[in-house]
Amino acid sequence: MDLINSEKLLYDEISALIEESRKKIYSHASGATVLLFWKIGQVINNDILNNKRADYGKQIVSMLSTQLSVKCTQSQGQKCKQYSKNNKKCF
What we know:
Strand content: under 5%
Number of strands: 2
Order of helices and strands: HHEE
Largest sheet: 2 strands, antiparallel
């Protein structure tokens, strides 16, 4: 096997390892994000709304979203995803 083929094989193997690790990282991060948002919703529901629907709940979520977006932007240099209580999803 010549040097060029050997380098190509090494490159391909290392590239595959990197790509495999990236996929695992994305998967773990996605799962952690889903769990985070679920726990945030649970805290708001249990501690603030007392397991009841309330009009002021929308205001609380909006206020928290704004404050946390500012904090996240300042501390990490990126915007937090905003939580939409109406859609019950992040966007």
